From TrEMBL:
Keywords: ATP-binding, Kinase, Magnesium, Metal-binding, Nucleotide-binding, Thiamine biosynthesis, Transferase. This is Thiamine-monophosphate kinase. Substrate binds at residues 54, 263, 319. Belongs to the thiamine-monophosphate kinase family. Mg(2+) 4 binds at residues 30, 45, 75. Its EC number is 2.7.4.16. ATP binds at residues 121-122, 147, 214. Reaction mechanism of ThiL seems to utilize a direct, inline transfer of the gamma-phosphate of ATP to TMP rather than a phosphorylated enzyme intermediate. It comes from Candidatus Competibacter phosphatis. It catalyses: thiamine phosphate + ATP = thiamine diphosphate + ADP. Gene3D superfamilies: PurM-like C-terminal domain (3.90.650.10), PurM-like, N-terminal domain (3.30.1330.10). GO terms for molecular function: thiamine-phosphate kinase activity. It comes from the Bacteria.
Length: 323
């Protein structure tokens, strides 16, 4: 028996009963009606995940649901915004209810954890699975973390251990061998990234600039440098490599993966010297490590330096959608 679009919406999306007080009308009408808080700016972001491009066609749908929301929450984290609402446009080649149930479990588990309500969207039939999710959050005026505030002398930092998702992709394509003891870890880092929401909120009033690392650390850092009209010196020996990455690749290849691997969804940020003590005072409550990896410079461009002062060269700095 065929399943209608409206029964799918009611069964898997509208039936989820988490309700925010600032949602006057959610799923079920032509538009949602929302009540943005007074004195807050609305931060909004959108990402699309395409089967065979952003996730494997046979990927665990629960992980796909988690990631579809996580990549958007990561953008909000990079702006120092508190998550609130989400909309979802879902294209499916068939109405696979088992897949949908698992997808919703993953998405709603993360949504509930961060107080996010799904307020609307669209479902449609198409040749492949395409997931477009938009997330909205709030930030006080003047407190958003932006890409254009870095200044020469600011310390350069990254959360977590970049390169783990890149290692998982390399292993999936047979370009790296990972010990069995590390397989679950790197798979989770690729399929279930943790958006650094608490860290982003803690960086408000501390960081001068920030970005989330989705297309590779070197490439995404370049966006901060371009928007801030500065440069940076990144010391590659300072890069925090996870035990899985360090054990799976030689040092040179591990550094390249940490600099260029996408899908990490860590935060890269700059902190003025006078605010470093504030940073160090807040990190005890963070769920991840933070590492100083360099400094912002007046000279434009990204300099990758070894411990002996020589340059570390990269052929490519990150993922290119049309490269």
């Amino acid at each position: 028996m065929s399943v209608s679009e409206f029964s799918l919406i009611e069964r898997y999306f509208a039936a989820h009963r988490f309700q925010r007080s600032d949602v006057a009308l959610g799923i079920g009408d032509d538009c949602a009606l929302l009540l943005p808080p007074t004195g807050q700016q609305l931060a909004t972001t959108v990402d699309t995940l395409v089967s065979g491009v952003h996730f494997f066609a046979d990927a665990d749908p629960e992980g796909v649901g988690h990631k579809a929301l996580a990549v958007n929450l990561s953008d909000l984290a990079a702006m120092g915004a508190t998550p609130a609402w989400a909309t979802l446009a879902l294209t499916l080649p068939q109405a696979n209810e088992q897949w949908l149930a698992a997808f919703c479990r993953g998405m709603f588990a993360l949504a509930d954890r961060h107080g996010v309500q799904l307020i609307g969207g669209d479902t449609t039939h198409g040749p492949i699975t395409v997931i477009t999710l938009q997330a909205h959050g709030f930030v006080p005026p003047g407190w958003a973390l932006r890409r254009d505030g870095a200044k020469p002398g600011d310390g350069l930092y990254v959360t977590g251990t970049p390169g783990d998702a890149g290692l998982a992709l390399a292993a999936a394509f047979g370009k790296a061998t990972v010990a069995a003891s590390h397989e679950n870890y790197i798979r989770a880092r690729l399929e279930r990234p943790e958006p650094r929401i608490a860290e982003g909120l803690a960086l408000r009033g501390v960081a001068s600039a920030a970005i989330d690392v989705s297309d590779g650390l070197a490439q995404d850092l370049g966006h901060i440098l371009e928007r801030s009209r500065v440069g940076a010196r990144l010391e590659v020996e300072r890069l925090p490599l996870s035990p899985a990455l360090a054990a799976s690749l030689d040092r040179e290849a591990a550094v390249v993966t940490a600099l260029t691997g996408g899908d990490d969804y860590e935060l890269c940020f700059a902190v003025p010297p006078e605010r470093i003590s504030q940073l160090e005072g807040s990190v005890a409550k963070w769920s991840c490590r933070h590492t100083r990896i360099g400094v912002i410079t007046a000279k434009p461009g990204l300099q990758l330096a070894r411990a002996n002062g020589s340059a570390f060269d990269l052929e490519q700095r990150g993922y290119e959608h049309f490269g």
